[in-house]
From TrEMBL:
<feature type="compositionally biased region" description="Low complexity">
    <location>
        <begin position="191"/>
        <end position="237"/>
    </location>
</feature>
<protein>
    <recommendedName>
        <fullName>DUF5776 domain-containing protein</fullName>
    </recommendedName>
</protein>
<dbReference type="Pfam" id="PF19087">
    <property type="entry name" value="DUF5776"/>
</dbReference>
<feature type="region of interest" description="Disordered">
    <location>
        <begin position="191"/>
        <end position="238"/>
    </location>
</feature>
<dbReference type="InterPro" id="IPR044081">
    <property type="entry name" value="DUF5776"/>
</dbReference>
<feature type="domain" description="DUF5776">
    <location>
        <begin position="403"/>
        <end position="470"/>
    </location>
</feature>
<feature type="domain" description="DUF5776">
    <location>
        <begin position="331"/>
        <end position="397"/>
    </location>
</feature>
């Protein structure tokens, strides 16, 4: 379960042992009614009252798969993977990672949420890391400095996703893991009566006995003992029954880990038409979703078109995984007060939301202040405090302030090249020279099968960013 499934307002909750309830449009996946929170300041395994779907003006609860239930747990593996992506060999040392893994287990145990929530999503300068071992506090500070998330909800993984056909869900218990309930609605052709407030009865129905809500999902009021149907049983032709995190048809997604493009939903070597390796953020392979289909085992696939215009794979069509471990939306869905330009060629600002009437270009490393986020077709734009519009494409901008390397000092003699691929040497630079850094880029930017290597752009060309050759100064 990720930030997109639980919505950004989940990050403001101090007590993680809550159940979030959402009311969404089946077609768009957008919220149509304010979300609710149940179980704040509760205790583990506390029974919750039955939750009844409200009547919402202009919408009717859909007949099939009307309730989606999800629970999640913290993934230590995801946390450690983010640590290993920090710059420097120290963060990849096996002994250090083994020690960090033990500290993680010792500090958070079987209930990491109640501990980690005491300081996630807070200013490190003002709140700090109380009661943490030095190694974990150091890593959290490093993750924040490198602009990776220190928010625990970015390290969640889905444990349970189940559907039921009802207007009521009962038998929920608070757990050490977060839970979410989504009521799915279809838009009416005509407007019905005024909406009523979502109902949570004072007297709950008899809860279903369960050792943990993450291992035994609740049932609807029309089925007192039979578990709800798994999401894998959703018909591939019924887009309204797709999970809430699924990208809309026509929207852009990119791969965050190595994936394959296949001719059919059967992912085999014989059906594979292309590999896409894990690339740096600014060059992640991008696709447009053209449809959905499930494999024989029920696993959801995206039908896509490759839109990596400078790659040899451009225009290829086929199927890729829809798993959020591998594929994410290209565009931000929520506002961030500041964003940093990460595209080597900068980002253009415009006077219009459709990105016409260019105002200016902001170079890589520029921190921009955002007033709000707006939607344009299936993309989003950030409105700056000066009223201009920029793209909210994650390949071009990154949330928050991202510190850039301002200069380097050479540790040994090195070569300067005219391009990031280092195919044409144009100067030899001596040891102990200080060079101003104007930006960064990667080699192999047009090759979706090779990761690429970080380079620094200096006066006259590009040099290596390898710490064996240069010392960084930010």
């Amino acid at each position: 379960m990720t930030l997109y499934q639980l919505n950004s307002d989940l990050l403001t909750i101090e007590n993680p042992q809550v159940v979030r309830v959402f009311y969404k449009d089946s077609e768009t996946g957008k919220d149509i009614y304010p979300s609710a929170t149940l179980g704040e300041n509760g205790i583990n395994q506390q029974n919750l009252p039955a939750i009844i779907a409200p009547k919402i003006s202009g919408y009717s609860l859909r007949n099939k798969k009307s309730i989606e239930y999800q629970s999640a747990s913290v993934s230590k593996e995801v946390f450690l993977k983010n640590v290993q992506e920090l710059p420097g060999d120290f963060f990849k040392d096996p002994q250090f990672l083994a020690s960090l893994s033990k500290e993680f287990d010792k500090s958070f145990g079987g209930n990491p949420l109640s501990s980690l929530s005491n300081y996630v999503d807070q200013s490190l300068a003002t709140r700090g890391f109380p009661n943490l071992p030095y190694s974990l506090a150091f890593i959290m500070a490093a993750l924040a400095y490198d602009k990776k998330s220190t928010n625990l909800f970015d390290y969640l993984q889905t444990n349970v996703t189940k559907f039921s056909d009802s207007d009521t869900i009962q038998g929920l218990k608070l757990s050490t893991n977060p839970q979410a309930v989504v009521f799915w609605y279809n838009k009416n052709s005509s407007t019905p009566t005024t909406p009523t407030t979502p109902t949570v009865p004072d007297t709950p129905s008899t809860p279903i006995t369960s050792s943990s809500s993450s291992s035994s999902a609740p049932t609807s009021s029309t089925s007192t003992s039979t578990p709800a149907a798994s999401s894998s049983s959703i018909a591939s032709s019924d887009n309204a029954n797709l999970p809430s995190y699924v990208a809309a048809k026509g929207a852009a997604v990119y791969s965050v880990n190595k994936i394959g493009l296949y001719k059919s939903t059967k992912f085999s070597a014989a059906n594979r038409s292309a590999w896409y390796t894990k690339k740096p953020r600014i060059y992640r392979p991008m696709f447009v979703v053209t449809g959905y289909k499930r494999a024989a085992n029920g696993t959801l696939r995206y039908r896509v078109r490759d839109v990596n215009h400078t790659s040899k794979t451009n225009g290829k069509t086929g199927y890729i995984t829809a798993s959020q471990k591998y594929v994410r939306p290209v565009y931000y869905a929520t506002k961030h007060s500041t964003v940093t330009v990460i595209n080597p060629r900068g980002v253009n600002a415009y006077h219009k939301a459709n990105l016409t009437k260019k105002a200016r270009n902001y170079r890589q490393g520029t921190v921009l202040h955002v007033k709000r986020i707006v939607t344009h077709n299936l993309t989003t734009r950030y409105v700056l405090t000066n009223g201009d519009y920029i793209t909210a494409n994650r390949k071009l901008v990154n949330m928050g302030r991202n510190k850039q390397v301002k200069s380097v000092k050479t540790k040994r003699t090195l070569n300067r090249y005219s391009n990031a691929n280092f195919t044409k040497k144009n100067q030899v630079i001596a040891k102990n020279r200080t060079l101003k850094v104007y930006g960064y880029d990667y080699s192999q930017k047009n090759n979706v099968t090779k990761h690429g290597t970080l380079r620094y752009r200096v006066a006259g060309g590009y040099i290596t960013a390898n710490t064996k050759y240069v010392r960084d100064y930010k």
